Amino acid sequence: MSETSLNYLKMNGLGNDFVILDGRTTPVTITPASARALADRETGIGCDQVILLQAPEPHFPSGPDVVMRIFNADGSEVDACGNASRCVARIIAEEKGRNDVLIKTNAGLLGARLGEGGQVTVDMGVPKFRWDEIPLSEEFHDTRFIELQIGPIDAPVLHSPSVVNVGNPHCIFFTDDLETHDLASIGPFLEYHPLFPERANISLAKIIDDRQIVLKVWERGAGLTKACGTAACAAAVTAARRRLTSRQVRVHLPGGALDIDWRSHDDHILMTGPTELEHTGRLDPGRYHFNV
């Protein structure tokens, strides 16, 4: 281990796991190669996303507590990650000895609050529904139902998904049977579909009742995941738009459940769920191809 070894934290939100590096005092540069090396589950530490914490610019009283950058397992940088936001909120809140935290991301400022029993609530902001905000490569006036299907033209197995941007682009197919469809096969094809110029997260959603959704997610740049916070938010708001559920729902993912509240008075999405610190450790930057 070199003298420039770095501390890291391994955390997860419902099994969606992260390697978190602190670059606030010692600047850290993460490249696509270094993110892939860290995320590799056989030769690296292993995770869905690599998270880099950075110090905010010198700020006035209302400034953020920390800057969070997010790198997928394939090395691509993305703007938002709900489960990682909860993990980072817990780190900063415990560090500062208070419950409220403000996190700066590429998608904007996220307010977070620690609650009872280790639960963390993050304000994910206002969803975007316009076709050019998601973005899509062609115009759709009603993004609750877009023209996209899997299977034969006259008998598609999946069709008419909803699309939304909740910090990153999401495409959600609603179905009565999640087990019928192989998301591991469908996901990669749809992630790179020409309709999504910035790629997309692909989800299959089943409505249980007015307040419960079951969700499976193919995450852009990471693949099948046990949980995806932004996908849970996306499923919740699109289900409400399609009048399938209320604006307050529990979304059940393979790794556990998230509570989503799409507030009616300001359209902000509040996401609540647990976090887990798996372990801490030290790593050699040279081994993972990045500089400090």
State the secondary-structure class.
alpha+beta
What's the helix-strand series?
A: EEHEEEHEEEEEEEHEEEHEEEE
Outline the biggest β-sheet. 17 strands, mixed
Radius of gyration: 19 Å
Bulk shape: globular
What number is the mean pLDDT? Answer: 93
Low-confidence stretches: none
Please provide a written account of the structure.
This protein is an alpha+beta fold and 292 residues long. It is 15% helix and 37% strand. Strand 16 (248-253) and strand 17 form a beta hairpin. The mean pLDDT is 93.
Summarize the topology:
Layout: E1 6-13, E2 16-22, H1 32-39, E3 49-54, E4 66-72, E5 77-78, H2 82-96, E6 100-105, E7 108-114, E8 120-123, E9 149-150, E10 158-159, E11 162-165, E12 169-174, H3 183-191, E13 201-209, E14 212-219, E15 223-225, H4 229-241, E16 248-253, E17 256-262, E18 269-273, E19 276-283
Parallel strand pairs: 2-3, 4-6, 12-13, 14-16
Antiparallel strand pairs: 1-2, 1-19, 3-4, 4-5, 6-7, 7-8, 8-18, 9-10, 11-12, 13-14, 14-15, 16-17, 17-18
